[in-house]
Amino acid sequence: MKIRNRFRVCVTHFALAGLSVVFMFPLLWLISTALKRLEETTMHPIVWIPKHPQWHNFADAFTYGSAQLGYIPFLVYARNTLLLCILVVAGTVVSNSLVAYSFARLKWPGRDLMFAVTLSTLMVPFPVLMVPMFALFRDLHWIGTYRPLWVPAWFGSAFSIFLLRQFFRTIPFELSEAAKLDGCSEWGIYSRIVLPLSKPALAVVALFSFMATWNDFLGPLIYLIDQKTFTLSLGLQFYQSQHGGTQWHLLMAATTIVVAPVILLFFFAQKQFIQGIALTGLKG
Amino acid sequence: MKERRKGKIAGLLFACPWFVGLSLFMAYPVCASVYLSFCEYSVLKPPMWVGTENYRDLFHDELFWTTIKNTGLYAIVALPFGVLLGIFLAMMLNSKVRGLAFYRTIFFLPSLLPQVSLAVLWLWVFNGDDGVLNEFLRMLHITAPNWLSDPAWSKPALVLLSLWGVGNAVVIYLAGLQDVPVQLLEAAELDGASAWAKTRHVTLPMLSPVILFNVIMGIIGTLQVFTVPYIMFPGGSPARSTYFYTMYLFDNAFRYNKMGYAAAMGWIMFLAILVLTLFALKVSERHVYYGGEAK
Fold first, then answer.
1. Min CA distance, B213 vs chain A (Å)?
2. Is the pLDDT assigned to residue B294 strictly greater than 50?
3. Is the pLDDT of residue A52 over 90?
4. Do A281 and B214 touch (CB under 8 A)?
5. Can you tell me the ipTM of this complex?
6. Considering Cα of A16, then A20, then A21, then A23, what sign does the dihedral take?
7. CA quadruple B231, B232, B236, B242: dihedral positive or negative?
């Protein structure tokens, strides 16, 4: 029995190690290529560790096109993306915490029906809304600006409302009652009791909306026109469509620039990621 | 009495951002989309009512059926493989080996990366002459396929790529596995159940609601696949073998300016998702176990 168990542990370890090597390969390949000289990218057999790591590839990817355009695209893309993320995350946290508070802890006629409607909107895929949304923003003269990408975030989203509502409901209602007896208003209960106690859930919502904005491609593709306003995702696609298949070392350096913040963020907020996904997956 | 009224007003005030958001960014587009799907609409000119023409045209549109076939084929292969690999990885991670956090990080990380960067990176991995994958295959003396230019290999390439992003599901499965009661497994072991029997008769039934959740999320996601093929295979190349439904919808809306046509495609997609989800729920009824629920 014991021997068989130990054998199983060994096999599991072996399989896990093997699979993690397979999973790591593309990322190692990415970093390795990003540090190569152009000639090294097409050498056989593969050069895994470049003789002279070309750290300036990152700088080159950053400044690519700056001579023709008069500004530095990847730096501009990064700034644009960051700005957009800040606006979206702020809007998501503010609006959804208000709405979720109402759904979780206040009573008003039609509330449960409204909540059911809210959940059912999760079923509607974005492609269904794509055409009328575009028409709406065009009528508002918002095409080519960031507004279509961040203004809706300030008016709630079904997913975040659901997530926060579930969390808010776990906070003891006696706290609200006690505060009310002491003359605290609903706003006071929301801002001074519920919000401070909900930091983990708010962090998850902020994190998810940040990731969604950072990774979004279809939205910027539809609404942005001028290259100066592009986000990193869109900028990377633009770069690839112009230089794919020729300058792999620079393209991989540019990809690393897009990917690195996500990886860094993951290492800082690993707990929130895992919790958030498990939370929405199991209680969903 | 006055207190209750004050509560109601506060409730409505707190919820009012969502009233605006729901009506402006959900209810209005949904209604407009239904209307536009019965119109000829090019953005430049006001919509013109054409009845069911868009839907009838779609029925005779060869490309429409091509994209449905491509999307369906991709989903039929990618979904089961994703579920199997996801459960397999989660079960290995759940077997109390050392270094769980390390392995979990490695499997989870790829699923977080932006789709655009995935597509660009894998263009290079799949590169016919200098890509790392074909270099390995050549080392093993396997004929290296042209992943990106052979219509027979373009879809398998996308399936491989989708498996790299299985980490999200792994985390959900893992959380589900950790909820499987230890007493049940111990009881089974006392009765002399083999490892396979325990998996088959205890773990998998307990995990079934989580599997169902992942399958439904998988259906919704796979039917909407867009970014990766859009970048890796411009125009659905080679030979339209990777032209997926959402790509054609996007092209109709923003390349050919056939907005009404695109809206009709959106609703057909919605119906497909609805039908498939209900189907999954129906089929699973007999197989999914919800703890504590009377049969």
1. 7
2. no
3. no
4. yes
5. 0.89
6. positive
7. negative
Contacts of B122 in chain A (CB under 8 A): 26
Q: What is the pLDDT of residues B137-152, one digit of tens each?
A: 988 988 889 999 999 9
A212-245 confidence digits (pLDDT tens):
999 999 999 999 999 889 999 999 998 888 776 6
> Contact B109/A240, CB-based, under 8 Å?
no
Return d(Cα A217, Cα A235) in angstroms, integer.
10
- Name the phi and psi angles at B39, rounded to 5: -125, 160
Lowest-pLDDT range of A30-39, A181-190, A273-282, B1-10: A273-282
* pLDDT score of B18 more than 80: yes
Beta bridge partners of B48: B40
Domain B59-284: which CATH number of 1.10.4200.10, 3.30.420.10, 1.10.3720.10, 3.40.50.2300 = 1.10.3720.10
Pick B124's closest partner by Cβ from A123, A232, A252: A252
Q: What pLDDT, in 10s, does the model give residues B111-167?
A: 999 999 999 999 999 988 888 899 889 889 888 899 999 999 999 999 999 999 999
Q: What is the CA radius of gyration of chain A?
A: 24
Pick from A12, A103, A211: which is nearest to B15 by CB?
Answer: A103
Bigger pLDDT: A249 vs B69 = B69
Q: What percent of chain A has pLDDT over 90?
A: 60
Distance CA B282, CA B204 (A): 18
Which amino acid makes up residue A47?
Answer: V
The answer to whether the CB atoms of B112 and A262 lie below 8 A apart is yes
Rounded to the nearest angstrom, the minimum Cα separation between B16 and chain A is 7
Inter-chain contact A273–B254, Cβ cutoff 8 Å?
A: no
The pLDDT of residue B128 is 83
For residues A149 and A133, the answer to whether their CB atoms sit within 8 Å is no
